[in-house]
Amino acid sequence: MKKITILDLKAKKARGERITMLTAYSYPFAHFIDESEIDAVLVGDSLGMVELGYESTLPVTMEEMLHHTQAVKRAVRRAFLIGDMPFMSYQTSTEEAVKNACLFMKAGCDAVKLEGGTEVVDKIEAIVKAGVPVLGHIGLTPQRIAQLGGYKVQGKDIKTAQKLLQDAQELERAGVFGIVIECVPYQLTKLITQRCSVITIGIGSGPYCDGQVLVINDLLGITIGHKPKFVKSYANLASQIKEAISQFQKEVKEGSFPDLGHAYSLSDELWQEIKRITDSK
Ligand code: KIV
Predict the structure, then answer these.
(1) Domain ranges for the chain
(2) Which end of the chain has less Cβ packing within 10 Å, N or C?
(3) Is the dihedral of CA 141, 48, 199, 18 positive or negative?
(4) Which residues share a beta bridge with 19?
(5) Whose CA is nearest to atom 4 of ligand 1?
(6) What does the CA dihedral 9, 11, 14, 15 come to, rounded to 10 degrees?
(7) Which of 169, 127, 11, 182 is nearest to 80 (CA)?
(8) Helix (H, G, I), strand (E, B) or coil at 250
């Protein structure tokens, strides 16, 4: 099984072959994703909301991200692995940004992702200079939710559309190998993809990107709470999970689980011997 590198991703774009990316936060899901030959795995800071139950991604720490990245890394043999830099791991200083990006690489990542446009160009330049490939992230950037005023589509007027195009071009100049474009109208996403030479990965931004990413929990139908319009669930695991748990509950209560087919036994000979010894005491 050949490991996917940054060169393979760039070659896919050059050939017009779509790139697939999914988030993963745990060893089992990362294992199944990697076996399915998905190109890239993102340990997203969506971890905070979909796995840890936080209300936003803001509380997610470097420790939490590295803990889950290490679990994912143990399963990923083939896919390109990207670690998502959490809030406050790159905002405070360039030194902190470079140090934290390097910690993701030490945990086994092939690249890091961070959110923002022109405002984070200095951090991206420094991280790239340290030898760490960077994936940018523009449009709906959940770490700026307070500033954005909610999880809303971005670039819906002339000023914000122009800013998004400028952000993408500046990220490219800063040295990113790709950009995630989240919740941006498809016409604008198409223009950004045409104007930039780096890989564009869309989420909620329509079909005109070089690749697509989804949160694995959404894809599998185990979203808890609000499910955005752009999400397509390819399974409804939530109902299967609930059904399985109810069945277990029912069978234990009525005594049909465990049956002897799910139990260990002793040979008759040994059992008679044990009984003889214990009865004589
Ligand atoms: O954190 C995340 O999962 C992400 C993807 C939605 C791109 O940033």
Answers:
(1) 6-235, 240-279
(2) C
(3) negative
(4) 211
(5) 44
(6) -100
(7) 11
(8) helix
**Closest to 235 measured CA to CA, from 32, 39, 20:** 32
Regions of the chain where pLDDT drops below 50: none
The ligand 1 atom at the shortest distance from the C-alpha of residue 50 is 3
In this structure, what is the dihedral angle of CA atoms 136, 214, 104, 119, given to the nearest 10 degrees?
20
Q: Answer whether 0.70 is exceeded by the pTM.
A: yes
CATH tag for 6-235 (out of 3.30.1490.20, 3.20.20.60, 3.90.920.20, 1.20.1740.10):
3.20.20.60
Task: Report the alpha-carbon distance of residue 188 to residue 202 in Å, rounded.
Answer: 12
Contacting residues for 223 by C-beta, under 8 A, at least 6 apart: 50, 215, 217, 231, 233, 238
- The answer to whether 133 and 111 have CB atoms below 8 angstroms apart is yes
Q: Hey, which residues does 178 pair with through a beta bridge?
A: 135, 199
Which amino acids are annotated catalytic? 182
Indicate the top mutation candidate among 25, 33, 45, 114 to test ligand 1's pocket, ranked by most ligand atoms within 8 A of CB.
45
Tens-place pLDDT, residues 216-245: 999 999 999 989 999 999 999 999 999 999
